[in-house]
Amino acid sequence: KQEVTQIPAALSVPEGENLVLNCSFTDSAIYNLQWFRQDPGKGLTSLLLIQSSQREQTSGRLNASLDKSSGRSTLYIAASQPGDSATYLCAVYNQAGTALIFGKGTTLSVSS
Amino acid sequence: KAGVTQTPRYLIKTRGQQVTLSCSPISGHRSVSWYQQTPGQGLQFLFEYFSETQRNKGNFPGRFSGRQFSNSRSEMNVSTLELGDSALYLCASSSGTPNTEAFFGQGTRLTVV
C-alpha cells in the first residue's frame, strides 16, 4: 500500500532564504507526482506535476525533482517571500491512476 | 477558463441530517474526484467518477455516496451525519485520462453540530 511522508511538518525561515521541502513514498512504481499549495481554509493550488519519465520540473522560483529509485521528491523554493507562506502537499496517484494519495504536508512560514 | 466550482462554501448541519455538496469541473474535464480533509487524517480519497460511472472508491462508510451527471457535474451526499464528518470536502477535476494533472476547487466546509 502506497504511503506518502513529508518532512518536516513545519518550517520557519526568514525572507530571501532558499529552502527544500521533502516528500517520500513507499512504492517506487509511481506514474506522476504532483505538488500542491494550500492556504488556510482554502482549496489546493497545483504547483507542479512531474511525470515518471522526468527527473525535474520548474516553474518560476519553484523546482521539483523526482527520484523514483529512492522514493523521493523535493520541492526547491528559491528566494522565499512572505507570500510563499502556506502548506505544501505532495501526492502520488494510486495504481489505477484515479486517486491521489497525499502526504500530511509541510507548513511553511516566511517572515519579513 | 473557469476553474473548479464547489457549492456551497460553508454548511452547518445537525447530527442525523443529510447533506448534498456540488462540484462543477473545468469545462471539458470528464473526471471528478472527492476528498475529505481533516486535521487528524489529512486528505483522504472518497471516490472518483468518470463519464457518470464510479471508477474508484476509498475506504469510507456507505453513508458517503456520489453521482455524476451527463454534463460532468458531480454531487456528493452524506446521510445520517455524525460529528466526525465535520471536515473540508474538496473536489478535483481532471481530463479523465489516468495519472493526469488534477485541479481542485475551494472546498465546502461542513460543520456538524
Largest sheet of chain A: 6 strands, mixed
Report the radius of gyration of chain A as a whole number of Å. Answer: 13 Å
Number of helices of chain B: 0
Strand content of chain A: over 45%
Q: Number of DSSP strands of chain A?
A: 11
Estimate what percentage of residues of chain B fall within beta strands: over 45%
Helix content percent band of chain B = under 10%
pLDDT averaged over residues of chain B = 96
Please characterize this protein's 3D structure:
The complex is a heterodimer of chains A (112) and B (113). Chain A has 112 residues and is an all-beta fold. Chain A has no helices and eleven strands. In chain A, the strands form two sheets. In chain A, strands 2, 4, 5, 9, 10 and 11 form a six-stranded mixed beta sheet that branches. Chain A is globular and about 45 Å long. Chain B is mainly beta and 113 residues long. In chain B, strands 2, 4, 5, 6, 9, 10 and 11 form a seven-stranded mixed beta sheet that branches. A four-stranded antiparallel beta sheet of chain B has the order 1-3-8-7, with no helix packed on it. Chain B is globular, with a radius of gyration of 13 Å. The N and C termini of chain B lie far apart (37 Å). The relative contact order of chain B is 0.32. The mean pLDDT of chain B is 96. At the A-B interface, strand 4, strand 5, strand 9 and strand 10 of A face strand 4, strand 5, strand 9 and strand 10 of B.
Give the key terms.
heterodimer, A: 112 residues, mainly beta, six-stranded mixed beta sheet, 11 strands, 0% helix, globular, B: 113 residues, seven-stranded mixed beta sheet, 53% strand
